[in-house]
Structures are given as structure tokens and as C-alpha cells.
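Appendix B. Raw example, untouched.
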Amino acid sequence: MENKIKIKNNNYKEVIEILKHISSMASKSINDIYASSKIDTIYKKDKSPLTQADIESNNIIISSLKKHFKDIQVVSEESDNITDSIDNEFFLVDPLDGTKEFIKKNDEFTVNICLIQNNQPILGVVEIPPKKIQYFSDGFNSYKLSDNNLIKIESNNIISEQITIVVSRSHLDEQTEILIEKLNELNDYSFKIIKAGSSLKLCLISEGKADLYIRYGNTMEWDMGAGHAILKTANGYLREFNNKDITYGKNNYKNSSLIGFSDNNIMQIIQKLI
């Protein structure tokens, strides 16, 4: 394992601009395929779908990262040789997060690129290709860029009487539904449910449009890294059910059940119910 950190915090703003540019290039390639009338799909060993858009986006991102940061490892969902021997600093990539949403053509898929240092997400870009919207963290603050309009975003750190729960559009499970039923039995709060695909769920919490995301079962690190980086600098949280921080660079890159939230009071409510 290589312990030396190559990207220092005084370089974060320069690096995030490079990551944003790489994300935009990958998004353009995805949009070109998205505009076609037919999307050819194959299925991987885990039965998850794979399209030409996944492959082309991955090729652009990997080659671009290696060009700009040749000494830093890259871990991508679509890499053929994902290694368990990981450095303290690496890029974490999901070239097309939400392939099911891409196939359904509902616009809720993203490009995710993240810098991990010492097991934590530091910089992250989440881009929605068909909407040309970027969420990103420069390591200090979180932003949303849409139609050349750049705004700083923050999560809702003061809990209100109505808590908005964002759930997965394609992966809503029975355990989550049971927990939501328990929440609805509480007298102190009302709950609103919205659905979203891909890492948009964490972005919605980051910009204050949702307060809570619950995910039972395993996710992969590349599903969460970029959104987690954005959520952190938007003053939000992503934790395991035991309230421990999510860490990155695990041997199998798998996360256990997790909760994204905007206010610690929300986590206290959840822990009483699980």
C-alpha cells in the first residue's frame, strides 16, 4: 500500500475542475448513445445491465484520469481488473450510475467521479448527462452547476415537522417500506416520500430537497463515493446503521446498510426504530 498523498488541499480546486471536465466529456458520449432509438444491453455476472454507454464513458474517464494523474490508482465499476490492493489515495468511478434508469430513458442516471484519501471521499462530481447538471464538492463546499448558473448548496441542518424521505426508484425493498411505516406512526413528524435514481438521492439531501435516504442491503463504494463527498461538504452525513462513518477502499468495495441524512436528530429517530 502506498501511503504518500499526492494531491494536497491547496490543489483541490484545480483538481475538481479537471474532474468536472472529464465528467462532461463522458456525459457527452452517454448523451450521444441516449439519443439513439435502440439501446443494446448485455448482462454481467451479477445480472446487472451493461450498455455501450457504460463502456464508452468508462474508457473516457479512465484514460483521462491516467493522463492527468498517472501515479494515482483508479477503481471503476466497469474495470476488468479491480484490485484488492489499494493505495491510501485513489479515484473511484461509476461511469454510468443508474444503468436501469438509462435504459428506461427517465433521465435519472449520473456520471460519478470521486477522489478518496485515507478511506474518505474528498472531492466528487456527480453529473446528470441529459440535463447537463453537475453537483460537485471542491473539498470545502458543495455546489450545483446548471445552465451556467453556479450556486452553493447545503443540506437542511434544522429538522422541521415534515421530513422528506428519498427512496430508490428501482431498488425499494420491503425492509425500507416497513421502516417508513414505523416512521409514519410517529406523532411528532410527518413524512413525505420522493423517488430518485442513482446517486441523485444523496444530491437531493445535499441541496436541501430531501432529508433522509435509507438503504438496506449492500451497495458498492462507487455508487456512493462522489455523492458522499458532496453530502459531506454540504454538512450532511452518510453512515452505517450503527452510526459509524462509511469508509472506502474495503477489500470487496461493498457497503453494508446505510443511511444518508441532513440532521443528527433524524439519525437518533431512526436508531430507535431499527
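End of appendix B.
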